[in-house]
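Predict the 3D structure for this chain.
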Amino acid sequence: MPNESEKNQEKCLTQAEVSQLLQERIAQERRRYEGLLSQQKAAREQAEAALRERENTLRERDEQLRAQQIRSHAQAELNRRGLPQSLLGALQCGSEEALTQSLAAVEGAFRESLERGVRDRLRGGAPSAPIGAQLPDKKQRLSYQQAASLYQKQRLAGRDNE
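Done. Predicted structure below.
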């Protein structure tokens, strides 16, 4: 049976062996911590990506709500100023400032066009048509009696052909 001194000798390690074991243990722990750190880093990056996506979604929703509010304000302004709703498409609804400027320009152009049409109508002539819209061959307008007579002739001619 081994004596006490032999047991102590078996348990004793040299400095190099202790150093070797410590280095292995340190390397093992380092790998374990690096794995944990990489997992934490991946989780943090994933959380940051989800946060950025949520922020973008909220920003887009906020922009849509602002655009709807500006568009609603534009409709109310058109109503208040007595302008047709069809002018809404001509307005710039990107911001309040752009809306105000485009509304003033569109209203001025609309009022000017309306005034010109009223003046032409009051002058007794037909309203002036834009350039290019005038037809070279104008048809003669028939009176009610002439139109009724022509209708009767065409109707009788249609019966004869049957």
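The two ends are 138 Å apart (CA to CA).
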